[in-house]
Amino acid sequence: MPEQSSMHVYLNWTKQRIDEMDAMLASLEAKAGQAKADQLIAEMKKQRDDFQSKAKVQAQAGEAALQASKEQLEAQWQGFETKVKAYFDTISKQVEQQQATFGDAVAAQLKAWRAAADAFSSEAAKIAAAKRADVDAAVKQMKADATEAEARFEKLKQVGSETWSSLSAALTESRKAFDRANQKAGDALNEAATGKTGAAS
């Protein structure tokens, strides 16, 4: 079970990144049409595909390979983000498109938060009731964090004139919060499954 909970954390993490990449690419493709834009989007698609392929391979490699893989994938993720920033810096400085892309990325992030919380809840249901308290608390906190992130995003969307850099910073902060909540829920699940106590530190 410890390896399985580490796998849940890893899979939630990779799925969140891939879903966000897909959402941003779909948003950008809807407005593409210039040769330079098409080239940047093609490069971003290649990065997304490489990320997805490596994530799948590493998921089968076992727990020992997960951390090294995550570091490599994080570097690829940052490369993808750099391409998105380049797109907005050079191709489309239109606030409307930045807002639309931000909205799509937000929707992908929030969906990932909820899916991860549901997955941990499902796993927690398999654990004896006495050992579930920490997992349930971590899942409840994850859901509360998702609601808080959604409120922050709504505030930003209402302002409407934020630059891509500030929108991207908000996405990054939410991503970090997701990663912390995902890891905490995974640790709680692991500790509950192995009979340890005090998972919610």
Strand/helix succession = HHHHHH
Helix content: over 70%
Q: How many individual helices?
A: 6
Number of strand elements: 0
Poorly predicted runs: 197-201
| Count of domains | 1
Gyration radius, in Å: 18 Å
Secondary structure class reads mainly alpha
Mean pLDDT: 81
Described by the principal axes of the CA atoms, the overall outline is globular
% residues in beta strands: under 5%
Main sheet specs: none
Identify the notable features of this structure and list them briefly.
mainly alpha; about 85% helix; 6 helices; about 200 residues
Structure description:
The chain has one domain (2-194). 85% of the residues lie in helices and 0% in strands. The chain is built from six helices and no strands. α1 packs antiparallel against α2 and α1 packs parallel to α3 (63-91). The longest helix is centred in the C-terminal third of the chain and has 31 residues, at 164-194. The radius of gyration is 18 Å and the shape is globular. The model is unreliable at 197-201 (pLDDT under 50).
